[in-house]
Amino acid sequence: MMTGHGFHKKNVAMLIGIGLYGMIINAVPVLANTEVEKYTNTDFAMDTVVSETLYTTGDDLNTTIGEKIRQIETEYLSWTDEDSQIAKLNSSAGKTTEISAELAEYLKDIFQLAKDSAGAFDPTIGKLIRLWDITGENPHVPEQTELDDLLKDVGYQKVSLDGYKVTLEKGTTLDLGATGKGIGCDVVSDFLKTQKDVSGMILNLGGSSVMVYGEKPDGSEWKVAVTDPRDVEGEYLGAITLEGGEFLSTSGDYEKYFIEDGKRYHHILDPKTGYPVWNGLDSVTVVCNSGLLADGLSTACFVLGMEDAQSLLEKYNAEAVFVDEDKNVYLTSGMKERFELMKNTYTVQEVK
């Protein structure tokens, strides 16, 4: 018996809650500096709720920021918008296509991460994702023959990038969904650097990708809530302190899934098997200095598992929180000082 998760209504409400929580724990009164104004906004982009809190002596830029995130999606990332660069790349598989400098830079980082993770993170699994249809109208376990047929076209090695020229092998497609929100955060961060009136901002895309920029007026810390993967509408698992210029991303088996015969089938697929990853992890949260890399690393680390993920995190100077099915919370060495546990049903451990 298959039961849908009811993702859309239930989780949009949850994400709004996460966004509001982010605002609450980051809400501070404007003290001495009366020139700094606080502007908050809730938007919708990249199929998720976007929460924005901006500190500035200038104009409210939240609407502009939401537009920039949507523009990135439609111009570069969307596989469904036939005018986007990714859609055009996919439709010309088998040929060489010239792309913009911006997309070339994204793809350079994406394929380096795919290589460094030995394919645990792979941007060519879009067809597999759509076959499972986990967020669609017909989530189901595919036939093995269907998976085998699509797995033949999966593999980051099937894509070559030469400057601004990209060649996909025939049948191969690119899907940047696993880094899309992170790229959105990077674009907003770069935009804020050009706005001299802005002193600080926290941007939260659906609770799974967060960017903090600058400082709050009273100098207090930026804190971001971490969801309990088995109690997504209850109390938060904990909070992580971030510094301006840092990015956070969480990948978890609770975000998008369905249940069939008592088994949870979630959206984080193993590129080698085409099946959801089952390795004892419920979620992975990564903090580093790039939105794209935080997003990609959280996926890669979830697929790799905690032990194999350590060398990858070190290579990218990233810190992580691993939550397993036995309610253990494992912290990398640099995360110990910045993670605060908020539920006594979990036990904090140090990654060995």
Describe the protein's architecture and organization.
- Residues 1-33 have low confidence and may be disordered.
- The chain has a 9-stranded mixed sheet, with helices on both faces. The protein has a 3-stranded antiparallel sheet with strand order 1-12-13, with no helix packed on it.
- The chain has 352 residues and is an alpha+beta fold.
- It has helices spanning 7-26, 62-77, 85-91, 101-116, 126-132, 144-151, 177-192, 291-304, 306-315; strands at 2-3, 37-45, 48-56, 96-98, 159-162, 165-168, 198-205, 209-214, 222-226, 238-242, 247-252, 257-260, 263-266, 281-288, 319-324, 328-331, 339-341, 347-350.
State the assembly state of the protein chains.
single chain
Task: Give the percentage of residues in beta strands.
Answer: 25-35%
Biggest sheet statistics: 9 strands, mixed
Instruction: Give, in order, the helices and strands.
Output: EHEEHHEHHHEEHEEEEEEEEHHEEEE
Total strands: 18
User: Which strand order does the major sheet show?
Assistant: 2-3-7-8-11-14-15-16-18
Label the overall shape: globular
Unreliable stretches covering 5 or more consecutive residues: 1-33
Protein structure class: alpha+beta
- Binned, the helix content reads 25-40%
The CA-CA distance between the termini, in Å, is 40 Å
